[in-house]
Amino acid sequence: MVENAVFRVEGLRKSFGRIEVLGGVSLDLHAGEVTVLMGANGAGKSTLVKVISGVYARGGGAMKLGGKDFAPATPAEAMRAGVVTVHQNINDGVVADLDVATNLTLDRLSGSGAPAFFNPRRVRREAKIVADRMGLAIDLKSRINDLSLADRQMVAIARAMAHEPKVLILDEPTSSLSSAEASRLFALIDRLRAHGVAILYISHRMSDIRRLADRIVSMRDGKISGVFEEKPLDYEGAVNAMLGRRIHLDRIVVNEAAKTVLAVDGLRIAEGARTISLTLGAGEVVAITGLVGVGKTALAETLFGARASLAGTMALNGRPYAPVTPGDAIAAGVFLVAKDRGENGIVQDFNIYENISLPFLKRLSGLGVLNRGVERATARRQIGELGIVCRTERDEMGTLSGGNQQKVMVARWMSQPANLFILDEPFQGVDISARRDIAAKLRASSGGRATLIFVTELDEALETADRVLVMSEHTIVGEHRNADIDMDRLLAEVAGQPLRGAA
Amino acid sequence: MTLRELAIRYGFLVLLFGLIAYFAVSADGFASPQSAVFIFQSVAITGILALGVTATLVVGGFDLSIGSVATSAMMAAAYVMVVLEQNAVVAVAACLLIGVIVGLINGFLIVYMRVPDLLATLGMMFLLVGLQRIPTEGRSIATGMTMPDGSVATGKFSANFLALGRHRFDFFIDNLLPASVVVLLVLALLIWFFLEYTRFGRMMYAVGSNPRAAELAGAPVKAYKIWAYVISGVFASIGGILLAARLGRGDIASGNNLLLDSVAAALIGFAVLGASKPNAFGTAIGALFVGVLLQGLTMMNAPYYTQDFVKGAVLVVALVFTFALSHRGKA
């Protein structure tokens, strides 16, 4: 096995500042095999891909391609050496305003030896050769803009394959494809595998992984946490290795819910998905876990009025609850700490107190005129409560660490009493101590409201929640009281195993 | 505070005072109340337009149509009084209505039709430049003019309307303060208070900085954006009213510099007090800065064609202050 490895990575390291993202990763890729790389957000997958494809310089370790040292300084160099990467964002791989033929031959337009004049006929001739080899059935004259996502993806891959690579890396290629489109992609991958290309396939989707994987490598916290290559592949083991199951230090005392706060009935959040029904009680903390892309954020946004549901009803404290905008939800006492704080939460031009007061300006002002004194007093109280490290409440957000920025986001929504408090990936990009602080604060303040957190990492769910619900394929597939959890069943549900006894 | 921070924060104000001191010493008659008032009067209309465009800059947009909204309002005021023979109130109402409608259309194009702000308002600018000339077939409007159908327009500008541009209030010295300067000061105070001290202003800044975060904080982002263009349109139409009142006719050749001067004032405003963002106080100072510079140069007998060059140079320096020296400019 080891002898015929086309591509080898040994002890690869990479740090950003003091944070080590890759802590000695070793990986083999074999010709004619699809190796699936699994890992939660922040496990280091993207960094690994970027080091291999020449975007980042490595911090340590070695890479070998066909027995020779491989140290690309630029993506173009990696490509010429035969390691080709198709990145997650499809539109990075194609130029939308040009036609298919030009896109397929784009890499020949630059570099030394490229002709200075653009000859459409030669371009089309060369493109035809590339397209035929890949079995690409797309009109070469159509513009990328007019193509479906799947077709663009095909073009991006075909363009990558024009270099006749030995190694092909696909970073979550199906994340924006429908299942019919995905199966076309799989057929293409099968053909490449038969041609002897070594493929590294990065994905969270269990259905993709079952369809394609020859081997599975799990990654966690910048290290390889498991390699699975014996048939039949141990999918549950791979999920387990990726999510980890460390012994948690502070075992929580499980609360029982008092009266019902939120009742959801027959909610459908995606076309063709099974409906969701759940109830959340006052004083309990419920975690919903599941892999990336199973609809956790969609559910959170639906509860918050930021996304319309396809069917179903909700009731809040016994009254019908149907928010059309986040404003409706906030007025009803439903708050959301959205994921990706940089994108969805923080107003970068605002200081701490202005960020905290943002959703509640109406309550903090009289006749539309702001009351800065109350704003700043509220912010100071919240800074103390959550232990935000800063000089004053007037500090700029940019001066805070990631963990403290996240605390400000939590502080924002905890500055006013909530009926339902939703947090979507609240521990993303947060160091361990900030994570402990936030979790402790959530549990300590949980009385009187229902708290719902969405997390991919199992540990985070087990550390904070009274109940753990499992999501898969845009619906809820399992429920566990966070005491004596049947971990095997939970992992099977996360991995999308057919449920015992379920239709 | 380091020297660099001091430079960012107070650099432009120091420059302004330095300029005033320089002109006061070297240009006879610069340091007089009359000269100060003249400067204010010369920047009143561009200042008002600049305050309006500041509102669109705050929500992360831009409005290139302000100059043509102002001239359209001017032509409309003249048309209403001279051709339709209506009174001042009707003329003012017609102008304000134009501002509101243009603002709503701009907002609609940008928010719902997803046309990029620069392109939508550029299109609106061309449209208005043409539209304002259609009723008179391209002629300026003045009492006694011949209409396209051969009749003679006999209406005239009402005295009340002209007072908006020509009346001077007593302020320590008789007949010192022109009405247009009072309008500028009132509007500047209003928009400054609105942006800095009301929740609506705060939310507009949030919309400009991170619209997604503002939306998830419950703000009706689309409505805020449209409102910003309405504010811009109304301010521009007020500028147009003052222009008509000053000229006393609907002059198709006037108002050419309005757009560039007011945009320059708003952008210079970014650099005042190291704000690095659109703000009403900075815009007002920016307008004043340009006014002082031009008045001083004029009094020192600098040729007229150097003025545009100087304006451009000031704008470039101000933008360097904003983007190169401040940390926030990099984000």
TrEMBL record, chain A:
Key words of the record: ATP-binding, Nucleotide-binding, Repeat, Sugar transport, Transport
Domain ABC transporter per the UniProt entry, residue ranges: 7-246, 247-498
Highest taxon listed in the record's lineage: Bacteria
CDD domains per the UniProt record, alphabetical: ABC_Carb_Monos_I (cd03216), ABC_Carb_Monos_II (cd03215)
GO MF term (any one): ATP binding
Pfam families in the cross-refs: ABC_tran
Signal peptide residue numbers: none
Gene3D superfamilies: P-loop containing nucleotide triphosphate hydrolases
Entry coiled-coil feature ranges: none
Alphabetized InterPro entries for the sequence: AAA+_ATPase, ABC_carbohydrate_import_ATPase, ABC_transporter-like_ATP-bd, ABC_transporter-like_CS, P-loop_NTPase
Family according to the record: Belongs to the ABC transporter superfamily.
Protein name per UniProt: ABC transporter
Organism (species): Mesorhizobium alhagi CCNWXJ12-2
TrEMBL record, chain B:
TM annotation in the entry: 6-25, 37-58, 64-82, 89-112, 118-135, 176-195, 226-245, 257-274, 280-297, 309-326
Predominant localisation class: membrane
Location of the protein in the cell: Cell membrane
GO cellular component, one term: plasma membrane
GO MF annotation terms: transmembrane transporter activity
Entries under Pfam families matching the protein: BPD_transp_2
UniProt superkingdom: Bacteria
Keywords in alphabetical order: Cell inner membrane, Cell membrane, Membrane, Transmembrane, Transmembrane helix, Transport
CDD domains listed in its UniProt record: TM_PBP1_transp_AraH_like
Membrane topology: Multi-pass membrane protein
Record PANTHER family: ABC TRANSPORTER PERMEASE PROTEIN YPHD-RELATED, ABC TRANSPORTER PERMEASE PROTEIN YPHD-RELATED-RELATED
Name of this chain's protein: Inner-membrane translocator
Source taxonomy: Bacteria, Pseudomonadati, Pseudomonadota, Alphaproteobacteria, Hyphomicrobiales
